[in-house]
Write a structure and sequence with these properties.
By secondary structure, this protein is mainly beta. It is 9% helix and 40% strand. It is globular, with a radius of gyration of 23 Å. The N terminus is likely disordered. Bound molecules: zinc ion. Zinc ion (ZN) binds next to strand 5 and strand 6.
Length: 379
């Protein structure tokens, strides 16, 4: 279909579906209804990307009013008894439809990820298991701490990052889509890309310039280049200088960065765009650099002595066991299993949990960030 036409007509508030082959009703009004019924807001764009017979797939963007930061979903629609059934991604209805859609409308790899993304499964822990959206080993500036997708709205699901080589990269492996793109800043198209990760998290990369050549639905590895930092506004909003506006979602629900981790940094929110990041006890405020340590594994923790210095490793789960070594603040540790022992209080509160390391030594869970209560089985 002619996406530009649809955008223009929608922006004018005069929705007119482009003519389509055959006698079927157009899918676009049904998609508008599906999103509108959800929140009753302005619908800015419906783009059908693939269709075959009774099936259609694409992107829908919605905002409070024209020019505002848009929300976005993938949609899947099926014509049944002359009416379109429309489902938005990361919901049970979408998962059910995905299982029946032809491969030409939703590819096998896409089906795999979306059939697992039912509402109830999207309960990932605070460790996103993602890196930062630039090369591992690089340092960029956090120009804006946790803030809303549209600025000061909650939750504070977004971070602004800029600098380095300006190459924005997928923070983890997943399935990539372009939510919108245009050449409003001149030259090659820029825009908004989204990556759906296998653990239920989703990441948004906005204001991009010079999008790389990735097809919608492509499976990509961690670190895949998505584009350069820029000031593109295809999804509304504003940008005062080139950066990536990086959003975190669970499914398609925006969630706060507060106490979530990426690149082995744990984010703390303050006022919108304020706050800081912690790696162990090392604090980086807005305007300073974040080194991308890469993802923290789901069975790993970051040693946090709550003030710097070392943490004792012991021969068993409690202070009654002998000290057999130390861990440094900021170390990454892999945890085999846990058991209750003596209670201690660290930055993350009081806990009786002790973690066993692969070498058989133990340390108190009070002195690590893991993003979950316990890792692995009870020893
Ligand atoms: Zn931002």
């Amino acid at each position: 279909m002619n996406a530009t036409l649809a955008v223009t007509l929608l922006a004018a508030g005069l929705f007119v579906a482009p003519a389509r082959a055959g006698a079927s009703p157009p899918v676009e009004p049904a998609v508008v209804r599906a999103v509108g019924e959800r929140t009753g807001l302005y619908v800015g764009r419906v783009e059908v990307q693939r269709s075959e017979g009774e099936w259609a797939f694409g992107v829908v963007l919605q905002s409070a009013k024209p020019g505002d930061y848009a929300r976005g979903w993938l949609f899947l629609a099926r014509l049944e008894s002359s009416e379109w059934t429309v489902a938005l991604d990361s919901t049970s209805p979408f998962a059910r439809l995905a299982g029946k859609a032809p491969d030409s409308v939703l590819g096998p790899a896409e089906k795999q990820i979306f059939m697992a993304r039912e509402d109830m499964m999207i309960q990932a822990g605070n460790n996103t298991e993602l890196g930062l959206p630039y090369a591992v080993g690089a340092t960029w500036t956090m120009t804006g701490g946790p803030h809303g997708w549209a600025g000061t709205d909650t939750p504070y699901s977004s971070l602004d990052l800029s600098g380095g080589d300006h190459v924005v990269r997928a923070a983890g492996a997943g399935t990539v889509y372009t939510m919108c793109a245009d050449s409003s800043n001149g030259g090659t198209p820029g825009g908004w890309r989204r990556v759906y990760h296998a653990n239920g998290y989703t990441t948004d990369y906005y204001h991009l310039w010079n999008l790389t050549g990735l097809g919608n639905g492509a499976s990509i590895g961690a670190g895949t280049a998505l584009g350069n930092t820029g000031t593109n506004l295809c999804g509304g909003g504003s940008a005062s200088g080139r950066h990536v506006h990086w959003g975190i979602l669970s499914g398609t629900t925006r969630v706060a960065w507060h106490w979530r981790s990426a690149g082995k940094w744990v984010f703390w929110q303050g006022a919108a765009y304020g706050g800081y990041a912690l790696h162990g006890s090392t604090q980086r405020n807005v305007g300073t650099g974040l080194y991308n340590y890469g993802p923290l594994g789901g069975n790993q923790g970051i040693v946090d002595s709550n003030g710097g210095g070392t943490v004792n490793r012991r021969g068993g789960p409690g202070t009654g066991y002998p000290i057999v070594g130390t861990l440094n603040d900021g170390d990454t540790v892999t945890i085999s299993c846990w058991r209750n022992g003596t209670t201690h209080t660290g930055r993350w509160g009081a806990t009786a949990v002790w973690n066993r390391l692969p070498d058989g030594t133990w340390f108190s869970d009070a002195f690590a960030y893991t993003g979950v209560n316990t890792i692995g089985p009870n020893c």
